[in-house]
């Protein structure tokens, strides 16, 4: 498992860990049943507080991406397809909002923006 932290952005460290692990689960890089590093081990490797790592793991568990077995550790949960779809929809919506904002700043019409999207979709198929 590869996690890269940035001190320059405004995103809290626990959120960086949570989002990177979640993305690895969604992409399939981490499979259901895979063990995550122990909280202490990950904190030591990343040179951060154990409390920070625990918060990331707790949020992943609350979101249904991992589960904890007492005395054994944290494991990737079986994929809930509806949950994954919802996560992907949130990401798509955020990207589309960014595109809409950029289009508005560039004085693109709605039709021009839709034409661009249609072209992109046509190229993909």
How would you characterize this protein structure?
This protein is mainly alpha-helical and 125 residues long. Helix content is 61%, strand content 6%. The protein is built from five helices and two strands; from the N terminus they run H-H-H-E-E-H-H. The protein has helices at residues 13-27, 39-46, 50-62, 81-105, 110-124, and strands spanning 66-69, 73-76. The protein has a two-stranded antiparallel sheet with strand order 1-2. Helix 1 packs across helix 3 (50-62). It is elongated and about 55 Å long. The chain starts with 12 loop residues before the first helix and ends with a helix. The mean pLDDT is 92.
Structural class: mainly alpha
Query: What is the element string, with H for helices and E for strands?
Result: HHHEEHH
Strand content: 5-15%
Instruction: Tally the helices.
Output: 5
Multimeric organization: single chain
Largest sheet: spatial strand order = 1-2
Q: What's the pLDDT, averaged over the residues?
A: 92
Q: Given the C-alpha coordinates, what overall shape results?
A: elongated
Residue share in helix: 55-70%
**CA-atom Rg in angstroms:** 18 Å
Low-confidence stretches: none
Number of strands: 2
């Amino acid at each position: 498992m590869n996690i890269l932290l940035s001190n320059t952005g405004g995103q809290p460290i626990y959120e960086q860990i949570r989002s990177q692990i979640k993305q690895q689960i969604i992409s399939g890089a981490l499979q259901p049943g895979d063990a995550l590093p122990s909280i202490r081990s990950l904190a030591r490797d990343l040179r951060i507080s154990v409390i920070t790592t625990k918060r990331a793991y707790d949020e992943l568990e609350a979101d249904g991406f991992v589960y904890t077995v007492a005395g054994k550790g944290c494991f990737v949960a079986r994929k809930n397809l509806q949950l994954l779809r919802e996560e992907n929809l949130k990401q798509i919506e955020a990207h589309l909002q960014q595109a809409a904002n950029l289009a508005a700043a560039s004085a693109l019409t709605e039709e021009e923006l839709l034409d661009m999207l249609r072209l992109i979709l046509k190229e993909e198929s």
